[in-house]
Amino acid sequence: VFDYGIAAGVPYLITEFIAGQPLSLVMRAKPEMDPEFTIELANQMLDGLTAIHRLGIVHRDIKPENLLVNDGPPLSLKIADFGIAKGQGGSAGSGPQTAAGLMLGTPAFMAPEQVLGDPLKPATDLYAVGLILYTMILGHHPFQGDEAFDVVRRQVHEAPVIPNELYRGVRDFLAKSLAKRTTDRFESA
């Protein structure tokens, strides 16, 4: 945010203009992601998360629609939509809500602790990163379901299937990113 104010009684924010498109559109256009492209976007996503986590903020809604990609040159990724972000350690249900008792986030990209209303940590956002990278690499979400409830239930209770054909480092990264307990995930971006 560069500036803010009120004009004619209406609050406003002035933010950076980002030429590009959401990662979700890039993923639809390129179902099979180039490894170099994927690695560069992953590095930029993790750099951005490092910066916000250092400020004590958990984004809580990391998903392809909230990652803006400008394919350059140079290629760049920006994390957007901090509308439900909150300080580290807060429970998922203790922040802004749209209705009493309703947790905020996107079910397909919510970490188990976010679903369960447990305290949030940087690992909460890193779980979403694991889901995004899994989808970019394999072309589909690791937890399929007909309804949001099915996806959320699987995220809380089932381990993702990570194909053995993937390079070992990629398999290990995805498995650690998608661990059910925050203590089993990476501590920082």
Plain-language structure description:
It is a single chain. It is built from 6 helices and 7 strands, in the order βββααββββαααα. It has 189 residues and is an alpha+beta fold. Helices cover 37% and strands 13% of the residues. The two termini are 23 Å apart. Residues 93-101 have low confidence and may be disordered. The radius of gyration is 17 Å and the shape is globular. The strands form 3 sheets. It has a 3-stranded antiparallel β-sheet with strand order 3-5-6. Strands 1-2 form a two-stranded antiparallel ribbon. The relative contact order is 0.13. α2 runs antiparallel to α4 and α4 (122-138) packs across α6 (168-177).
Short description:
37% of the residues lie in helices and 13% in strands.
Question: What is this structure's SSE topology?
Answer:
Elements: E1 3-7, E2 10-14, E3 21-22, H1 23-29, H2 35-54, E4 57-58, E5 67-70, E6 76-79, E7 86-87, H3 112-116, H4 122-138, H5 148-157, H6 168-177
Antiparallel strand pairs: 1-2, 3-5, 4-7, 5-6
Helix pairs in contact: 2-4, 4-6
